[in-house]
Write a structure and sequence with these properties.
Helix content: 40-55%
Structural class: alpha/beta
Low-confidence stretches: none
Oligomer: single chain
Number of helices: 17
Number of strands: 11
Distance between the termini: 47 Å
Radius of gyration: 20 Å
Mean pLDDT: 96
Strand content: 5-15%
Strand order of the largest sheet: 5-4-9-8-7-6
Order of helices and strands: HEHHHEEHHHEHEHHHEHHEHEHEHEEH
Length: about 400
C-alpha cells in the first residue's frame, strides 16, 4: 500500500477542508489532472492506480494521530478532528481512463470530501509511475549524502526551510528519509517543519501550510473574478483569526492580487507566498506595496515555493536581506532528487457548483507564468478582461 496513513497528506488540504466545512458545506467541485509535459504511462497503469485508490478506503485516523493533530494545530476546532476520525476515502469519487500511454483523471463530489484527494493522488501517481517504469535511482548512501549537502548549504546560509515535497515525491520512503535527515542535520529553527502531517507526526515536527489556489478559484466561481481575491482573504481570516496568515498571491496573477491586498489585509496577514514567476520581481513588488501602505517590509515574510533548490534559495535570501524576511517551502528538489526526471503534473479544480441550485461553473488559474494557466480557455479570457490583465 503506497499511501501509508490518512495523514499522509499536506496540512493545507486539511486546513482548507476545515474552512470549507465552516463556510461552504454544500458546495460540489470537480478536479482534473493536468500534465505539463508529455508522459507515457505504462500498460496497466490505470488498473494498478485503481487498486491503490481502493486500498485507501481502509485508511482512518488513529487516536495517536488525532491527539498529535489537535495539539499541533490548535487553530482548527475540535469538531473537525471528530469529523476526520470518521472520514473515509470513497474510490467512486475518482474516475480514471487510460488510452495507450495517455492518462485522464477526474474527481467529483462534495468539496469538503474530495478536497483531500489531490495530494495523495499525485504522490500515488508519481510513486507508481516510477515503480512500473523501473527507473534506476541513486542508492541510499548517495541520497543521504545529497541530503547532508543540502542541509549544510541551508545551515551555512541560515536559510529557513520547510518540506513541501509530498505531491511529486519519488516515493514515500525517499521523502521520509529526507525529512529525517534534514530534521537531524539542520540547526534548530532552520528546518521549520513539513507540509506532510503524517511525517510531522513521525518526527514530532510542525505541520506547515495555508490556503491553496483552489480557495480563490472557488471564490471566483461563487462571487466573480473581481471579488475573488478580496473575499478569499476575508473568509480565510474569518475562519482562522490571524493564524495560518500567509496569503497565496498568484491565483489570478500577482498584479490582480495586489489590488485586493489593501491596508487591512496587508496588516492582518503575516506575509505572502510566491508560487510562480520571477521571485526577485515578486519581492520588489511586495516591498514597494508594503512601503506604499506605510508598513515596514521587515515586519512581513515572503514564503518562496516555486521550483526551488538550495542554491536558488540562497540567491533569493541574499537578495531579500535587509529588505524583507523570507523563508522557503521546497518540494520536488527535496523529495525527488534521486536521478530521475520528476513528473510535471498538477491536479486543479476544473469546475464548481457553489450551491445545489447552481449550475456547474468552470474554474481557472492564471499564474505569473502564462504557460501555467489552467482551465477553460474562454473563461481565462473573461478573467483577463475583467481584471485588466494584459
Amino acid at each position: 500500500m503506497i499511501i501509508k496513513s490518512l495523514l499522509d497528506n499536506d496540512l493545507y488540504k486539511f486546513s482548507m477542508d476545515f474552512a470549507i466545512l465552516k463556510l461552504f458545506p454544500t458546495a460540489k467541485v470537480r478536479y482534473k489532472l493536468f500534465l505539463r509535459s508529455e508522459v507515457e504511462f505504462p500498460d496497466g497503469f490505470a488498473e494498478k492506480l485503481r487498486e491503490e485508490i481502493k486500498l485507501m478506503e481502509s485508511l482512518k485516523l488513529s487516536p495517536q494521530e488525532k491527539d498529535f493533530f489537535i495539539k499541533r494545530c490548535p487553530y482548527i476546532d475540535q469538531s473537525y478532528f471528530d469529523f476526520l476520525e470518521g472520514y473515509r476515502y470513497n474510490s467512486s469519487e475518482v474516475g480514471i481512463i487510460q488510452d495507450g500511454g495517455k492518462l485522464e483523471l477526474n474527481i467529483e463530489g462534495w468539496w469538503f470530501r474530495v478536497v483531500l484527494w489531490e495530494v495523495p493522488l499525485m504522490a500515488l501517481i508519481s510513486e507508481l509511475y516510477f515503480k512500473m517504469t523501473f527507473h534506476s535511482i541513486y542508492d541510499e548512501t548517495t541520497r543521504r549524502d545529497t541530503n547532508q549537502k543540502k542541509a549544510a548549504i541551508f545551515n551555512y546560509a541560515n536559510i529557513k526551510v520547510a518540506d513541501f515535497g509530498t505531491r511529486r515525491r519519488f516515493s514515500y520512503d525517499v521523502q521520509k528519509e529526507m525529512v529525517e535527515d534534514l530534521s537531524n542535520r539542520m540547526r534548530k529553527g532552520l528546518f521549520v517543519g513539513t507540509s506532510n502531517v503524517h511525517l510531522a507526526h513521525l518526527y514530532n515536527l510542525t505541520p506547515i501550510g495555508t490556503e491553496a489556489h483552489e480557495w480563490f478559484m472557488f471564490h471566483a466561481a461563487k462571487y466573480g473574478f473581481q471579488m475573488a481575491n478580496e473575499l478569499g482573504l476575508k473568509h480565510w481570516a474569518d475562519v482562522y483569526n490571524g493564524s495560518l496568515g500567509t496569503a497565496l498571491a498568484d491565483t489570478f496573477t500577482t498584479e490582480a492580487f495586489l489590488k485586493a491586498f489593501n491596508m487591512k489585509y496587508a496588516k492582518l496577514y503575516d506575509g505572502v507566498r510566491q508560487d510562480s514567476g520571477d521571485p526577485f520581481e515578486f519581492a520588489d513588488k511586495f516591498i514597494a506595496h508594503y512601503k506604499k501602505l506605510g508598513i515596514d517590509p521587515l515586519s512581513k515574510t515572503i514564503v518562496f515555493s516555486d521550483s526551488l533548490d538550495p542554491d536558488t534559495a540562497k540567491d533569493i535570501q541574499n537578495y531579500c536581506i535587509g529588505k524583507i524576511k523570507c523563508s522557503f517551502g521546497i518540494g520536488t528538489n527535496l523529495s525527488n532528487d534521486v536521478g530521475v526526471t520528476p513528473l510535471n503534473m498538477v491536479i486543479k479544480m476544473s469546475a464548481a457548483k457553489p450551491t445545489p441550485e447552481d449550475e456547474w461553473i468552470p474554474t481557472i488559474k492564471l499564474s505569473d507564468v502564462a504557460g501555467k494557466h489552467t482551465g477553460d480557455v474562454k473563461m481565462i479570457e473573461v478573467c483577463k478582461y475583467l481584471l485588466n490583465i494584459k
